[in-house]
Amino acid sequence: MTTPTRGRPRSFDREAALDKATRLFWARGYEATSIGDLTAAMGIGAPSLYAAFGDKATLFGEVVRSFGARYGQFIPRALAEEPTAEAALRRCLRDAAAEYTRADCPHGCLVMTAGMNTNSGEIADMLREMRTRNLGLIAERIQADVDAGLLAPETDARLLARYVSTVMQGMSQAARDGASQAELERVAELAMYGWDQAADTARMTTRGDK
């Protein structure tokens, strides 16, 4: 008895094609990347792309998830492994300097830049949700130090997280503009020199001080 076939197998490596799509969206952004650009980079025809990945927006959604799993884990890893929020965020910024300037990848962070100038509310919302999720992870780590008495009880953890997140977004754009790893590492150091002042400001904001 023979087993019935389920159609012709794909003639391309799906994971390799996804990686090529990731790098293209990463380098050009969502709006500037066309289906023709994608098929050329991925080495497949449009019918194969649609069959394997769906339309452009669906493909981009998979790209974003793949990017987070492959290139974005340095943030949750540092938050989980370092003993304090300050140490974890110092490591996040230092690692960001390295990740955003990797020689084997487009520079910057796809999640921070690929949606710039997009006309798609769906795409903008997807990327905003990922950035907000990372902001929440940082805020939770800071709040854990507040709860443990390592930071003042009136510290606004989310505001302090916003400070770090804003620095990282600036580092991503600077990397795309040509900043080197060494320059961004120095930026990271300068940002953390201001950690105590940022924490003080977060406390003053919570109390409503001027």
TrEMBL record:
Q: DNA-binding residues per UniProt?
A: 34-53
UniProt xrefs under InterPro entries: DNA-bd_HTH_TetR-type_CS (IPR023772), Homeodomain-like_sf (IPR009057), HTH_TetR (IPR001647), Tet_transcr_reg_TetR-rel_C_sf (IPR036271), TetR_C (IPR011075)
Keyword annotations: DNA-binding, Transcription, Transcription regulation
GO MF annotations, alphabetized: DNA binding
Specify the HTH tetR-type domain's residue ranges: 11-71
Give the lineage. Bacteria, Bacillati, Actinomycetota, Actinomycetes, Mycobacteriales
Q: What is this protein called?
A: TetR family transcriptional regulator
The signal peptide here is: none
Native species: Nocardia tenerifensis
Any Pfam family: TetR_C_13
Source taxon at top rank: Bacteria
